[in-house]
Each structure stands twice: as C-alpha cells, then as structure tokens.
Amino acid sequence: MKQITSDLYLIKIPQVDSRAPQVNVYFLKDEKLLIDAGPDNYPCYLKLQQDLKVLGVNLEDVSVVLTHHHPDHVGLLKYFPEETMVYADSGIQYYGTSAYLNAIEEQTRRLQALGVPEHAIEQVKSQLQKRFLPFGEDINFKDLSRLNVPSVKVHRFNGHSSADIVFQKDNYFFGGDLILKGIYFNILLDIDPVTQKLCLLNQEYNQNIDTILNTFKIQQWYPGHGDQMNFSSLIKVNQKYQKLSQLIHQQIAQSFSFSDYDSAVCEIYNYFPRLNDYFYLSDILTVIK
C-alpha cells in the first residue's frame, strides 16, 4: 500500500497470472470508499483487510465503486462481506446471467457469418466467457445514481468497455482502463447489456477521450494499471495512441480480408507483440463493421 495524499492510498493487486499487469485499487480514507476491487486473488483479499486495518478501517465499513465490469477490476468482490455496498453501472448484473452466456453464443455465430476464422472466434468467445460474473447475484449492487458521497463526482463514458465510469475528487480523476500508458489495444469487444449484441466502440471512445481532455481540469489521472499521469503526460499518451490508431486503421481499411486473416494480421500488426486474436478483432471490427 502506498500513500499518495493524506486521504488517498494506492493498493496494487497482482493477478493470478503473473504475466498480467497488476491492478490499481484506490482507497479514499475520508470517504471509506474503495475504487475498484481488483482481480480474484484470495491472498490479496487478506492483504487488503490488513492494509485497511493499518489505517484504522474495517472492511465491513467500506463501500466500493466500480469503473467497469471486467473481472480484473471486480473479481475480488466475491470475498467481500455480503453487506458491502457496491456502486456500479446498472448493467453490471447482466454479466452474471445466463442471458449473457447465450448472447456470447449468438454473437460468435455472427462472427462466423462474417467469415472470421474459427480459431479467432474461439479466442473471442473465450475472452467474453471470462467476463462472466457467476458471483454477481451475491453482490449488493447499487446503481451509481444512489452513491451519496458529495466529494466524489461520477462521469459516465464508454469505449474501453460497454460502460466506463470516471470518478473525480477535486482535480484528481480515477479513470479505470479508459486511458492506459503504453497499451494500444484498449477498445475491447464487449456484449452490450441492453442490445445483447457485440458493441464496437471506436467512435465513442475517441469522442469520450476528447471530452475528457477538453472539459476537465485534470491535475492527476489515476489509471487502472500502471503509473499515475499528469495532464501533460495524458495528452502525450493520447497523441501516440491516436497516431498508431490512424495508421493501423488505414491499413485495415485498405488491405484487410477475412479470407486471408492470418497473413493480414501479421502484416498490419507486425510491430506489436503477438496478442490474442480477441484484441486484433476488437480493433478490426470497428473499422470494417
């Protein structure tokens, strides 16, 4: 645990897969508010309890807010006391239902109809299935509109996921995974809880990032992974992302074909490390949809 200000603490929670990036969980002591809960990692849950006790806080007295529904940000909730108040986008409960699993099957059939190779479809399906939250029905989810913490403002966006929440205290912003340093593949295929179809969020993402950078007076941006960024760093990170995005999307629009998927992926993404096809298809489908 690292103290950032007199009120703000950073707790880095490792994922079970040590190759995956650690998740940043933030604690506002005055508000007794935890921003995100981290991945499913029981030893880290015990450590979280210990860290809070050092601050004179019992976990039973803490409320949680969630930036988005991805398991690396909500998985630890399965160990929390049943009475814990968890504030999140109203659509989060959908990801713990059979309707979500059925939608994955239906949408993977849609990818088959588009001619996406089977091995890529299986990887997309696997990633979406990992987002299933079977413990969701045991969580005391409350809609964010019911959060009664005057010092914290709630801003709703989307782009990285179907519903991204940015929390603001003074000029400090907690942005989850909306803007991450060094990560290009940040717009991810998701199932929308309303339409129950794949949502392709490239346009919304770019609009929302512009809104964030042009509207808010950001002193520090606290992301879900990696180090905090000041406004100048945030601008540089976004400029690099936009440049890479434009380059790659131009190549996709000009030369991509599902009939030669593997060689097209190698040509278009040849200066990135080899990734799961889920990340490539998240990018590709926003261009050719």
Give the helices and strands, then pairings.
Layout: E1 2-3, E2 8-13, E3 23-28, E4 33-35, H1 42-54, E5 63-65, H2 71-74, E6 85-88, H3 98-114, H4 118-130, E7 140-143, E8 153-157, E9 164-169, E10 172-176, E11 190-191, E12 198-199, H5 202-215, E13 220-223, H6 231-255, H7 261-268, H8 277-288
Parallel strand pairs: 4-5, 5-6, 6-7, 10-13
Antiparallel strand pairs: 1-2, 2-3, 3-4, 8-9, 9-10, 11-12
Helix pairs in contact: 3-4, 4-8
Summarize the structure.
By secondary structure, this protein is of the alpha/beta class. The chain has helices spanning 42-54, 71-74, 98-114, 118-130, 202-215, 231-255, 261-268, 277-288, and strands at residues 2-3, 8-13, 23-28, 33-35, 63-65, 85-88, 140-143, 153-157, 164-169, 172-176, 190-191, 198-199, 220-223.
List its traits.
single chain; 289 residues; alpha/beta; seven-stranded mixed beta sheet; four-stranded mixed beta sheet; 8 helices
